[in-house]
Amino acid sequence: MSAQKFEEIKISNPLKNKVIFDENGIDAEKLKQADEAVAALTDTYIFSAEKDAEDMKAVFVGITRKMNWRCEDMQRLYLLSHDMKGQAGTYGYHLLSQICGKLCRFLEQGAEIKPQMSDLDLQVIDVHIRAIEFILKNHLTDECRQQGDELLKGLEEAMQKALNKDQA
Question: Could you tell me the residue range of the domain that residue 142 belongs to?
Answer without folding.
Answer: 25-165
